[in-house]
Amino acid sequence: MKLSAMLLRFSAVCILAAITTTLASAFEGKIEMKTTSSHNKEDMLSTMFLKGTRMRMEMATPPDKHNKEAGTFAMIINMETRESTMLMDKEKMYMVHKIPEPSAEKTASKNSAIEFKPTGRKEKIAGYDAEEYSGLSDKKYVEVWVTKEMGKVIMANQGKGGKQTPASAWQKFAEQNDFFALRTVMRAKEGGPEEMRMEVTKIEKGPLPDSLFQPPADYTKFEMPSMGDMMKGMIPGR
Length: 238
Description:
Number of helices: 4
Distance between the termini: 30 Å
Radius of gyration: 19 Å
Strand content: 35-45%
Number of domains: 1
Order of helices and strands: HEEEEEEEHEEEEHEEEH
Structural class: alpha+beta
CATH class: Mainly Beta
Number of strands: 14
Strand order of the largest sheet: 8-9-10-12-13-2-3-4-5-6-7-14
CATH superfamily: Lipoprotein localisation LolA/LolB/LppX
Low-confidence stretches: 1-22, 156-167
CATH topology: outer membrane lipoprotein receptor (LolB), chain A
Mean pLDDT: 76
Oligomer: single chain
Largest sheet: 12 strands, mixed
């Protein structure tokens, strides 16, 4: 894979990981998910491994307009050290990305009221009792099916560069109520066609080895070149 394509995928995975990253979890185990988007012809399958303040996400990404081939990626999140580690299996490399601290403005608004109301609809999703709530999140109409049976799972609502993601309102709603989202559907407006659906398809509760949350010993760390290093050789006299 070319470096530019690799970095493009890395950025996309960082954003997705930020949407689903847990800060602290009472649940330990494996969660399988499927994401359907109106922008992609194929579904994206992902698996989350949760253990305390650590998470590993493995994703099979479908082909897109930038890359003709599908790919498989893994991301390790450690909220204790506030680092995300991207694993590149084909190259046997890994890349570390620092997770920014929440801004003062975001911390102050964390407990603000969020308008998500129950619809009265209930069903079993991946073996867990779920209840539907609906509301607006960054001008998107969101239907979120949640459960309390997973224990306390706090969701991050921080995107690339510390900015809020389009899902931040529903994530704050889940966090404030100790909910875990088993299904999330986004629409441009109520009753409109689905733009995106994330749904948990399987949950396996149980202890996980620490080795899941660190790069393999035979992987090499990839360091992003600094701007000064990139300019060397391009400017006469440098």
